[in-house]
Amino acid sequence: MRAGELSPHPVDRSRRLVEAAFLATMTGQLDQVNRLLADAGQTPDTPTGLVFAATAHLLTHDGGDVDAAYRLLARALDDVGCKATADDWDRLGILYTLLLVSLYTLRPEPWKLLDTAMARFPPEAVTPFRLCYDAYVDPVRRSGAIREGLADAFAELPTDAAPWQIVPLGFAAVAMDALADHRRLLERMIERERDGGAIGMVIPALLLLCQDSYVHGQWDAAERLAQEGLDLAAAYGYRFWEQQLRAVLASGAALRGNADLARSRSEETTTWAAPRGMEVTEGYARSARNLAAIGQGDYEEALAQAARIGPPGAPTPGVPGRWMVLDYVEAAVRTGHLEDARSHVRAAQEAGLARIGPRVELITAGAAAVAADDAAAAGLFEAALALPDACRWPWDYARVRFAYGQWLRRTHDMAGARVQLGAALETFDRIGAALMARRSAAELRATGVSVAPRAAAAPEPLTAQERQIAELAATGLSNKQIGERLFLSHRTVGSHLYRVYPKLGITSRAALRGALEGLSGAPEPDRAPDGPDGKRRNGQPAE
Hints:
By secondary structure, this protein is mainly alpha-helical. It has helices at 2-6, 10-26, 30-40, 48-63, 66-80, 89-103, 108-118, 127-137, 143-156, 163-175, 183-193, 199-215, 219-236, 239-256, 259-273, 279-296, 299-309, 325-334, 338-351, 358-371, 374-385, 394-410, 414-431, 434-446, 464-474, 479-486, 490-504, 512-517.
C-alpha cells in the first residue's frame, strides 16, 4: 500500500494501489478497498481485471452480492487475457473469488465460468481449484480421482503453502468428507496468518475445520472454531463468512437439541441469504431446521425442510443435499409417505450417491433400511452398520442404530432393540445430542429397561465482557451504542450477544432481562474507567 502511494510514476502508482486494494480484501482491510481503488485512478496500463476482481471480492464479502460479483469477474477474466502462468497470483486471486461465488449458489453459470478460467492456466497451477470443482460439480463420477488427487495435493503442499492453495483443497475435502487426515495443514496456516496475515482465508479455514469437527462428533471443538471465525468475521467486516458460520452454528444448536435457537439462527440466515440468491447458504439454514424438527420428532416439519433442499424423488449430489437422503426418507416414512421415501432411495441408488464417500454411503444405506419392508429391513440395517468406518460418523451412525432399534421394538424383538437403542443412547449422550438421547431413553424404557434420567449439563457461564454487554443490551441500548461505550465495533458486540443467547437458553434480545435476573449472585457489569475529568469515558458521571 505504502509502496504504491510513494511511487513517482503514475503507471506504477496505479498498478501498485490496485494490487494493494486486492490484497486488502484478503487481509481484513475491507474498509480500505474503495479508497485504494479511487486513489489508483486509471492509466492505460492499470490492471482493470484486478480492479474488477477486488471490487467483486468486496461485493461478495461485505454485502453478499454474488450476482454483481459474478458479472464483474466475467469482465475481469476478459480483461486479463487468454493465457496465464502459475506465477500470476492476481489471476489466481480472480479464480478464488469466482470459486466462492460458485460454492454458495446453485446456479451453473459461475461453475462454467470457473471451468473456462482454469483452462487458461497450466493444469498444475490450478490443481486445488480443479479438485474443488470436481468435488462439487461431478462428485459421483470422479469420486475416486478426487480422493486420490486430494491425498496427493495435500501431501505435496510445502510447509509455507499459500492460503489460496490450502483453502480450496479444504473445501473439496469437506465436500468429500475427507478433511480429517489433513486438518493440521489448515491449522498451521491459521496459526501463521491469523495475526496480520490473510484474515480473509483464516475465517473459511476455521469454518471448514468446524464442519469436519461436527461430522466426527467433536461438537465442543466445532463450536470453539465457529466462534473464533465468527468473532474474526464480525471484527473485520466479512459479512459473507459471518452468515456461513451462523448457518453452521444453527445446525450445531439443532444437534445439541436447542430447537428454538436453531430455528432463530436459521431464520436469520435465510432472511439474509434468500434475496441474494445464495441457495447453498439457505440450504444449510434449512438443514438446521430439519435437524431441529427431527430431534423433536416433528417429522412433518422435517419433511418440509428436507424437501426444499432435495426434491422428492430427486436427491441432489450437491451440498448439503448429498448428506440429507436419510433426513428426507425418515421424515417421509414417519409421515406416511412410504412410496415417496422408496422413490427417493431408488433415485439416490441410481444416481450412485454412495460412491461419493463412506459417510454418504452410510447415510444412503441407512435410508434404504428405513424405507424397506419388514422382510428386508433387518438385513439392510445390519449391512449399513457393518460398512467400513461407519462409526467414524457418530451422529449418522447413531441415527441408523436408533431407527433400527425402533424397528426391532415395533417387530417385538425386544432384546435386539435394547442393544441398538442402548448403543444409540450412549453415542447421543457422548456427543451431546440431548433431544435424541432423550428419545432413545424413552424408546429403551418402552422395551422394559429402566433408564435413569440424565442430569442436565450445567450451562456455560458468561465471561465478564459477555455479561457486561448482555446487561447493556437488556436496557435497550443498540449494538452501536454498546460498542461506543465499550470501545468495540458494533459487529463485535453482535458476535458476543450471539454467543450469550445459547448460554442463557434464550433466542432473542427481548428475553435478556428475564434471563439475567434469573442468574443467582450475578455481579454488576464492569463500568468503563474514569476519565481525567472525573467522568466516565462512556459519558456518564462518576459516582
